[in-house]
Amino acid sequence: MGKERKVRAYTNIALIKYWGKKDETLFLPMNSSLSLTLDSFYTETAVRFDGSLERDEFWLNDVQQEEKAVQKISRVLDLFRETAGITEPAYVTSTNFVPTAAGLASSASGLAALAGAANLASGLHLDKRTLSTYARRGSGSATRSIYGGFVEWQMGTNNDDSYAVKIDDADWDIGMVTVIVNSKEKAVSSRAGMKNTVLTSPFYPSWLESTAKDLTEIKSAIREQDFQKLGEITESNGMKMHATVLGATPPFSYWEPDSIVAMHMVRELRQQGIPCYFTMDAGPNVKVLCRLSDSQKIQSYLTTYFSPEKVIISGPGKDIEDITNEGVYHD
Ligand code: ADP
Ligand code: DP6
Q: Does domain 5-170 have CATH number 3.30.230.10?
């Protein structure tokens, strides 16, 4: 029986969204994306390869997962088994310190943590860049959760050159306030939503064009530590992603009435002179990019409407961490 190895990976929220695949098997995206890793939401996953098991076993939040969920993680475990020459099934336990499947990026931290733990348990000890290509095969956004701070997922052209790169540590007074509008499992997964959008939305080609421009500009905003520019591009890119969804057939929307309330409140905060900007993913929750030093003021304002436990402050998260205290990751 192999040794159990456990890692923690933090979620990330895209400021420039990944929205669409050009290869569904390899998870090659239609566009490069850029995110901020968050310290308040994360997943801890332990993996052990164990010859006494008949098949992979997966426990998430103390609940044994059914065949479909096991298959999803087995596909990622297989990549490690193939490279490392392991034939044993794996015993996997995971805890999400983030609501699952609610547009709060549990798939990003979940699949990154799985890849990170399998990397150590298999003895492969891949460098982080290569590890990000394995995490990508579980969920696209997981590619970016290997690193902390601002992270770019460079779309690349093949399995080996579509990986994450750290752009900046985001240690210049950057924060994010998350408004949990609804933490229930969403009706349309990111995977299904982006697929339908690529296939049917007439707005999709313009999305790709304008996102390439947004990415270049946001990277220069980060280089110049220009917070206003960073926020304006973030807000605009998120809205454009949601516009492609409205143009799909059948049209759909991830927004709920309270998502719009939160967006209005962010605009009001700006009018009061507090720089902050919203973004949303494939769910109703609203994430507010802000100065970490303004985050408590923003939280206070938002909790005049939302309940306090639904408004959560995050600072920039870290790289994936080995919490068995034994393995070492290499850059
Ligand atoms: P989210 O917005 O939370 O990322 P998605 O629908 O995109 O929602 O992804 C949720 C899916 O991610 C889950 O159904 C599950 O398959 C996977 N997932 C979530 N947490 C974990 C975890 N800790 N380990 C492995 N897979 C996970
Ligand atoms: C809107 O990474 O969850 O959050 O690759 O199919 O697993 P799959 O999708 P996923 O999609 C994330 C979409 C997004 C934007 C983003 O995180 O970049």
A: yes
Counting from 1 in the atom list of ligand 2, the atom nearest the Cα of 241 is: 1
| pLDDT tens per residue across span 285-310 | 999 999 999 999 999 999 999 999 99
What whole-number distance in Å separates Cα of residue 31 and Cα of residue 150? 17
Question: Averaged over 262-266, what is the pLDDT?
Answer: 98
| Tokens, residue 285 | 């929750």
For ligand 2, what atom is nearest to the CA of residue 13?
A: 17
Q: Provide the whole-model pTM.
A: 0.96
Residues 238 and 131: their CA atoms lie apart, in Å, by 27
Question: Which among 141, 144, 197, 253 is the best mutation to test ligand 2's pocket, defined by most ligand atoms within 8 Å of the CB?
Answer: 141
Tell me, in angstroms, the distance from the centre of ligand 2 to residue 268's CA: 29
Provide residues with CB under 6 Å of ligand 1: 43, 45, 60, 69, 72-73, 94, 96, 100-107, 110-111, 114, 189-190, 283
User: What is the CATH class of 174-314?
Assistant: alpha beta
Q: What are phi and psi of 283, to 5 degrees?
A: -175, 175
What tokens were used for 129? 């860049």
Q: How far apart are CA 39 and CA 317, in angstroms?
A: 4
Atom of ligand 2 nearest to the CA of 153: 18
Name the residue ranges covered by the structural domains of the chain: 5-170, 174-314
* DSSP-assigned states of every residue in 43-77: EEEEEEE-TT-SS-EEEETTEEPPHHHHHHHHHHH
